[in-house]
Design brief:
There is one protein chain. The chain has one domain: Orthogonal Bundle (Ammonium transporter fold), CATH 1.10.3430. The protein has 22 helices and two strands. Helix 2 runs parallel beside helix 5, helix 2 runs antiparallel to helix 10 and helix 8 packs antiparallel against helix 15. Strand 1 and strand 2 form a beta hairpin. It has a two-stranded antiparallel sheet with strand order 1-2. By secondary structure, it is an all-alpha fold. InterPro entries: Ammonium/urea_transptr (IPR029020), Ammonium_transpt (IPR001905), Ammonium_transpt_CS (IPR018047), NH4_transpt_AmtB-like_dom (IPR024041). This is Ammonium transporter. Keywords: Ammonia transport, Membrane, Transmembrane, Transmembrane helix, Transport.
Length: 485
Amino acid sequence: MATTVPIAYQGNTSASVPDWLNKGDNAWQMISATLVGLQGIPGLMILYGGVVKKKWAVNSAFMTFYGFATVILCWVIWAYRMSFGDQLLPFWGKAGPALGQKFLLKQAALPATTHYYKNGTVETATITPFYPMASMVWFQGVFAAVAVILLAGAVLGRMNIRAWMVFVPLWLTFSYTVGAFSLWGGGFLFHWGVMDYSGGYVIHVSSGIAGFTAAYWVGPRSKRDRERFPPNNVLLMLAGAGLLWLGWAGFNGGDPYAANTDSSMAVLNTNICAATSLLVWTWLDVIFFKKPSVIGAVQGMITGLVCITPAAGLVQGWAAILMGILSGSVPWFTMMILHKRSTLLQHVDDTLGVFHTHAIAGYLGGILTGFFAEPELCSLFLPVTNSRGAVYGGSGGIQILKQIAGGAFVIAWNAVMTSIICIVVKLVIPLRMPEEELLIGDDAVHGEEAYALWGDGEKYDSSKHGFYSDDTQHQRPYSGATDAV
């Protein structure tokens, strides 16, 4: 008896695969977005959970988990349009939803510039990726979520979780969207030609400055925690760091908005700079402190990834190595030497040093982009044409000034707006946990603990979060053949 093989249902192919859709670009964009998302959860979530003191493991991980979810929802309801929609102000877009089917299924497009040079050429080209707007919304949404999670690193171990729950949507709305629109969404820095390939300013400088500012307003950890804050799980921290490193392929490789040659160059440069920076930081630790620090190596990796981000697809490989040398040494100096001598830096309790690893490294990378941006690579990156770094002569020197000014705007806006947000939240909810919660940690804040190891001030209450009855908990543990005898 003959059998027939049914043809797989493919839906309305003419509608689901329009002529303008490039399946390869769309697939790469969704993969890139997912890689970036994995940097936040589980990457930074388990990095934070491992690098902090045991009693703060759950709270630190939960702050990232909650922050990610909050940003994604706010992003599609109003924040995406504020970052990439129609202009409201030269630095801000109009709020609006990014949820409708007609909006999400149309071809993605970002605002075109109308700024022309005297010879009639356009300074920045129109960006029209060959995939749906839904891919763009998701891709940019995970970027925003990671920025919030990076900010959290500065206030771990003492910020009131309820205050954090209110802080996240406010900071996304009034701080992050301004940098995103100004540099990427058609705002005044975009038109002026400031180069930020993948978020050195939009993500890292903003989160580093905002984190440092929030840390000032929240106040320091308890004296005991500040004096002794050992990682509870170094291997878990390294697992998170590994996810962060490899996830950066989506962070920088997805920002040409296409699976093209510039994307490949960006991914390679990212890994070159990160590896160089890690090695430089490690050797500086060996030379000056006699031991290679695992935490130091992770810090060096992060500063390398951050530094190359604004330049990833705009510089050649030799420049990526030089940037790695500087990203492994300049933030090392500010963190290990300058921090200990600065009254201001000592006063502000930045738990994980995001000021150094993100604000300093991000600003350094943005300025170095002004030095090393290669003209031909700039022309491959759609938002930037007629641009070059200082080492290539011509108008390159002006580019450095643009980079410095663009970073200064992001710094100033985040310092002021984050302060305002913290002051407003403080009027309603205390920014800092009460002393009894600071003493106990996760068990007092969440009623849960990371590990079944009791001590360090924590209290266990089986009636609230135990899985076994009292009788079960006190049974003699199974010991193999001896029980059968």
